[in-house]
Write a structure and sequence with these properties.
By secondary structure, the protein is mainly alpha-helical. It contains seven helices and two strands, in the order H-H-E-E-H-H-H-H-H. Helix 5 runs antiparallel to helix 6 and helix 6 packs parallel to helix 7. The structure holds fe (ii) ion (FE2) (2 copies).
């Protein structure tokens, strides 16, 4: 990937964190772990920003991308709390990201809006949020199709 070095420089402090690495314990789609999924989404965000010259705040974009599914549970396990996973996990990710990394409001807003339009009232307010919600959907569709 073009800009690979810059990409890793930006994500390194978060990537190296053991709570982030613990996302490798959870399955996102098919056989893909949440950690792999989040890295793929972050890479696609970085590439889309370069390709479309959207001049995003890369710190915000990549932090939000890496932490957008930082909810830290297995959503396939039957549990009343997990029943509304699609609607609620972004909020859980925001809470965890604030607690563990002290992310700013812009980054929090991008994470909160990544499931839009499912979460109607949490719409993307920044270009970083639009890129994240697009990248997440593209990667999720690909991961869901390829599992078959
Ligand atoms: Fe998500
Ligand atoms: Fe995701």
């Amino acid at each position: 990937m073009k800009g690979e070095q810059e990409f890793w420089e930006i994500i390194k402090p978060i990537w190296d964190d053991e709570r982030v690495q613990s996302m490798s314990k959870y399955i996102q789609h098919g056989k893909v772990t949440t950690l792999t999924h989040s890295l793929r989404v972050a890479k696609l965000c970085y590439q889309l920003d370069r390709f479309f010259h959207t001049h995003c705040d890369k710190q915000v974009l990549l932090q939000a991308a890496l932490l957008h599914d930082f909810y830290l549970y297995d959503w396939h396990q039957k549990d009343d709390d997990h029943r509304w996973h699609g609607f609620h996990h972004a909020e859980v990710a925001v809470k965890n990201a604030k607690t563990h990394f002290g992310i700013d409001e812009k980054t929090a807003s991008c994470i909160a809006a990544h499931m839009w339009p499912l979460t109607l009232r949490k719409w993307p307010r920044y270009k970083e949020a639009w890129i994240l919600t697009l990248a997440d959907k593209l990667i999720s569709i690909k991961e869901t199709i390829l599992r078959k």
